[in-house]
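stuck on this:

***
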Amino acid sequence: MPQVSLKDYVEWVRSGAALASFPTDTVPALAARPDQSDRIYAAKERPPDKPLILMGATLDDLLPYVNGSPDEIVLWQRMADCYWPGALTLVLPASDIVPPAMNPVQTGTLGIRVPDHPLARYLLSQTGPLATTSVNRSGQSPLEDMADIAAQFPELVLLSHQAIAALKAAMGDFAMTASGVPSTVVRWQDGGWAVLRQGSVQVAG
């Protein structure tokens, strides 16, 4: 699929017409509208027991997708305030608006994250929260270069060089490469946090 303008990128992703990729603070994301998550699994040949992460521009955008008591939400907000935007994924009880395709084995949980990358957050503010994972075939290393992504996943929609240059002029410069280190993943259970994967963010379990 050709590299496109910002307007076309947002329209195609919001309409569910295309899978997309964009840079984040960890590795580039393979993204789709949440109800189109099955297309991510197909593109990656990803096993169904590996759920996707819902990325959003803000915690407020993501809260409708999780289910907790007012006291729990206060604690989740406290964790988000400490580490977001950043490379920390919170695994929380999923609400009933989460499309089943996001988690085919139906664990009842959902990983959410606000990335520490200005372009990612801007795009997410325009598209709404997106189901995401790394860009690679299942079992292979994540792709980090946009040229490699375009070559290996030609069906993905990418921002054109002109669109990226215009956004940098408007927003200030930002990197198109990232750390390459996956996010830390913590799960809420029994009133506390359990570390499922230790990434670049250090969180005590």
